[in-house]
Amino acid sequence: MEIHAPDHPITGWKDTAKHLSIITAGVLIALALEGIVAWADHRLLVREAVANLTSEIRANKKELDGIFTDIEKERKQLEHADDLARLLSAGTPPKGMELSLYSNVAQLKNAAVTTAQITGAFGYMEYSEVRRYADVYDLQAQFMRLQEREGEKFQVVLGFVGRFADSTPPPAAALEAWRKDISSLGASLFVREQLARQLLKRYDELLTTAR
Question: Helical H runs in 120-209?
Fold first, then answer.
């Protein structure tokens, strides 16, 4: 903003008041225009953040939708492993000893919420709207931590499988300990399934109310 001096000498108080009024009006107009531009920039920032968040949550929902089939397969594999351990512990190994174990986890993203925090977009949203996003992403983070802990339990269960290749079978005590590890992993699997259903419900609610 530039302020120019009058193009002729000021001759009295009336002339002075006139020029001061013009300057004041110019300053106010300039400030108003700057405010409008800033408001428009903030609205654009919010729209972009909401679009990114909505897209990311929709992709995460699609990723999470497919995990329940895998969870059911993993549960059946654990039941089979437990049956096998029980038979071996009782000294009656099955004729065809086959065992397959695998774990599949959901890859849920949080880049959009991190970007919204860094750019300050959340600062221009209503508190209730920010709270909805925070609640969903907090639950998502809890789910991801649970998956990580479950992965550690899965490694313990899977690591024992190599002992079946030894010339002598694992002792009964070791097999019973393995069954406890299997039971612990199964419990974690159940909790992950329940938490996944809660998270899907939160995703649906947020996508329904998203602007």
Answer: 127-161, 172-209
Distances (CA, A) of 120 to 29, 56, 115, 140, 156: 27, 18, 8, 21, 43
Structure tokens at 151: 């992965």
Neighbour-count burial for 175-186, b at 16+ CB within 10 Å, e otherwise: beebbebbeebb
Axis-axis angle for helices 13-65, 127-161 (nearest 10): 30
The closest of 149, 137, 156, 131 to 199, measured between CA atoms, is 137
Number of Cβ atoms within 10 Å of the Cβ of 54: 15
Residue 47 belongs to what H/E stretch? helix 13-65
CA atoms within 13 A on the CB side of 204: 8
User: Taking the chain, what is the end-to-end CA distance rounded to the nearest angstrom?
Assistant: 37
Tens digits of residue pLDDT in 14-25: 655 555 566 565
Give the model confidence (pLDDT) of 93-104 as tens digits: 767 667 888 888
- pTM equals 0.78
Instruction: Report pLDDT digits (tens) over 166-180.
Output: 778 789 899 999 999
Phi/psi for 156 (5° steps) reads -65, -45
